[in-house]
Design brief:
There is one protein chain. By secondary structure, this protein is mainly β. It is built from no helices and 7 strands. It has a single domain, classed as Sandwich (Immunoglobulin-like), CATH 2.60.40.50. The chain is 0% helix and 54% strand. Strands 4-1-6-7 form a 4-stranded antiparallel sheet, with no helix packed on it. Strands 3-2-5 form a 3-stranded antiparallel sheet, with no helix packed on it. The chain starts with 10 loop residues before the first strand and ends with a strand.
């Protein structure tokens, strides 16, 4: 069974409006979109970086919490 390598702690994204997009970007020579989610107001997504995910893009108004602090995207 394949087990992904964990690259960091969990981070939390809470949508502050309907239609917030959370987009996962790949590792490697070419950065590509590999996963996306739509969150509605009040929905929370808990995620983490893995062997395949090197970055996350958040579009829309959201609260993002990490072990390094909290920020609001507007």
């Amino acid at each position: 069974m394949y087990e992904p390598t964990i690259k960091s702690d969990f981070f939390v994204i809470k949508a502050l409006e309907d239609g917030v997009s959370v987009i996962g970007l790949t590792r490697g020579n070419d950065t590509k979109f590999h996963h996306s989610e739509k969150l509605d107001k009040g929905e929370v997504m808990i995620a983490q970086f893995t062997e395949h995910t090197s970055a996350v893009k958040v579009r829309g108004r959201a609260m993002i919490q990490t072990s390094h602090g909290e920020m609001e995207n507007s």
